[in-house]
Design brief:
Blueprint: H1 25-90, H2 97-124, H3 129-139, H4 142-149, H5 156-172, H6 180-212, H7 217-240, H8 243-252, H9 256-270, H10 280-373, H11 391-399, H12 404-461, H13 465-491
Helix pairs in contact: 1-2, 1-5, 1-6, 1-10, 2-3, 3-5, 5-6, 6-7, 6-10, 8-10, 9-10, 10-11, 10-12, 11-12, 12-13
């Protein structure tokens, strides 16, 4: 009996053995990792962008710190120029002209530095354009103010308008900074600059009053107003100042000249305005020293602002580099790890699929053919002479793992062995049935052959026509039975050769 054909294995997802890449296991494993990696890259990009923005803000703060320094320095030089000009007018306009010219040269130098710093500030902070334009308009009138100041008319209002426009620039700088610490540091510089300006106004006002020996009510009100403005600015400074700035202010604004100037001012507010007890020159010297101290405080605070901005810029750049590098490293590591695991998992699954196809398309049929032909079995239940690794050999390495795929491979090995064993049993059963059918058919044919021989003998000896007719009918039936036996031999896979005429026992 020929071996039955094995069932055809159905191929899913089309006729090709290649899986759909869109729905492959590798893609399904990589998709969530890729999404998470993209999210990590997005988060890292945001953090890096934030760090770069902080670095840009710190760089802008450095530029604005330079602008604040140039502004308060120009304010200081203009106030000194105004004081020297007022003193020159008080001396008749001739004695001490060299002092005024020297101070004007220092003022021109400060103006050039301010213009350069203002242009830099305009580039990094377009919001300062309005106040910078106002200060530039006032600076254009500086030459006119100087010409008027040397004449018979006072030019104090022109100088004061210019100083006010510069102080407006200093007050506008903090609003251009997003970092609270740097913005407060810029406010500290602006507050000290305003206090210096108020001190200069007090110096000029009380010097004239001390030289006259009297203080009008309007001047007294003006002094009280300036004192209130100075206290307000000092309170503002104390509210926003950092510990370092407060220490710098306390260290530089402490001294005998500061105490002397404060005492002389308090005497003016408490004494009879008709008879001032102080000397104008002594007041001028003491208050000028206070103004220089304010200028030193402003410069120190500007330097601290610049140093802190540089430190923050460096930290922000470092943070941006570290964040970007760490994000890229983690994303690359995650993607490579996921790719390795996905490829490894996909390869192992393909090995399992190949092993299943080998078992279904080759090993089962070879096992059945080997049993049917009576040859010995090869290793792992394969037929001798089979090419390529067996299904068990392909899954052996996978089954040594500890994950779920290894468990599937182990279960597949069990199923494979059970299938081969069952196929062997079925094949052996078919062989046994075939051999039994062949033996039975040959036995039947032998018996019928002997029966035909006996009938031939009876026919030769019989003379009665009726008896011969019955013998011929019986002979015909026996011949048909012999043909059925031969057909049974054919079905059993044997060769129905002609039997020997000799009787068999």
């Amino acid at each position: 009996m020929p071996a039955p054909r094995t069932a055809r294995v159905r191929r899913h997802n089309g006729s090709s053995d290649q899986p759909n890449r869109l729905w492959s296991v590798r893609t399904q494993l990589l998709a969530p990792i890729l999404i998470a990696t993209l999210g990590l890259l997005g988060l890292g990009t945001l953090q890096t962008s934030s760090a770069l923005s902080a670095s840009s803000d710190a760089q802008r703060a450095r530029v604005l710190a330079g602008t604040a320094t140039a502004t308060v320095r120009l304010v200081h030089e203009l106030e000194r120029e105004l004081a020297e000009t007022v003193a020159l007018r008080g001396r008749g306009g001739t004695s001490g002209r060299q002092l005024v010219d020297a101070q004007r040269q220092r003022g021109d130098t400060a103006v050039r530095r301010y213009r350069t710093a203002a242009e830099d500030a305009r580039d990094v902070a377009p919001g300062l354009a309005r106040v910078l334009d106002g200060a530039n308009e006032q600076l254009e009138q500086l030459d006119d103010a100087r010409s008027v100041a040397l004449g018979n008319r006072p030019a104090d209002t022109l100088y004061l308008s210019l100083v006010d426009s510069l102080l407006a620039v200093a007050d506008a700088l903090p609003a251009q900074l997003r970092n609270t610490e740097l913005a407060n540091a810029a406010r500290e510089v602006a507050s000290v600059g305003a206090q210096e300006h108020i001190a200069a106004l007090e110096r000029d006002l009380l010097r004239a009053s001390f030289n006259r020996g009297t203080l009008t009510k309007a001047e007294l009100v003006r002094v009280a107003h300036l004192r209130g403005a100075q206290e307000q600015r000092q309170a503002e400074f104390s509210r926003i100042a950092s510990p370092e700035a407060s220490a710098t202010y306390g260290r530089l604004m402490t001294g005998s000249d500061v105490s002397t100037a404060r005492r002389m001012r308090d005497q003016v507010l408490s004494a009879d305005s008709e008879a001032l007890p102080a000397d104008g020159d002594a007041w001028f010297v003491a208050q000028s020293s206070v103004i220089r101290r304010y200028n030193l405080v402003g410069r120190n605070l500007s330097e601290q602002l610049d140093a802190r901005a540089a430190e923050l810029a460096t930290d922000a750049r470092t943070s941006a580099l570290v964040t970007g590098a760490a994000t890229l490293t983690l994303a690359l590591l995650a993607f490579l790890t996921a790719s390795f695991l996905a490829v490894r998992t996909s390869r192992r699954l393909r090995e399992l699929r190949a092993a299943a196809l080998i078992m279904a398309r080759r090993e089962l049929s070879e096992r059945i053919d080997a049993i049917a032909s009576g040859t010995d079995q090869g290793p792992n239940g394969t037929a001798p002479g089979s090419t390529g690794p067996s299904a068990l050999e392909r899954t052996a390495a996978i089954a040594r793992g500890r994950d779920e795929i290894a468990q599937v491979a182990e279960a597949f090995d069990t199923v494979n062995q059970a299938a081969l064993h069952l196929a062997g049993e079925q094949a052996e059963l078919r062989v046994d049935v075939t051999r039994m059918a062949e033996a039975l058919a040959r036995r039947i044919r032998t018996l019928i052959t002997r029966q035909l021989r006996l009938l031939d003998e009876f026919e030769r000896e019989e003379t009665d026509p009726d008896a011969l007719a019955r013998l011929f009918a019986l002979d015909h039936l026996a011949a048909r039975m012999r043909r059925n036996g031969e057909n049974l031999l054919v079905l059993a896979g044997a060769n129905p050769a002609a039997p020997r005429r000799a009787p068999t026992c």
